[in-house]
Write a structure and sequence with these properties.
- By secondary structure, the chain is mainly α.
- It contains 1 helix and 2 strands, in the order ββα.
- The longest helix has 45 residues.
- The radius of gyration is 25 Å and the shape is rod-shaped.
């Protein structure tokens, strides 16, 4: 029976091989989480910039012809 305590990153397993594997999975997982988070942060920044550009462009454009 394996006991996992993810909060303190302490892992108790029956053998050292599976313990090593799980430790690698945790390292990979945190790396992936970091990459995902930075991607999300950059994405939201670019979304904000894009939206502000759209608003700016819309306010600066003038109609080409007016209907009579």
């Amino acid at each position: 029976m394996n006991i996992y305590n993810f909060n303190q990153h302490e892992i108790f397993t029956a053998d050292t091989k599976s313990m090593f594997k799980i430790e690698n999975v945790l390292k990979t997982r945190t790396t992936l989480d970091g990459i995902t988070q930075s991607f999300k942060d950059n994405w939201s920044k670019s979304e904000i910039q894009r939206d502000s550009l759209l608003v700016k462009d819309a306010s600066e454009t003038k109609p080409r012809c007016s209907r009579k």
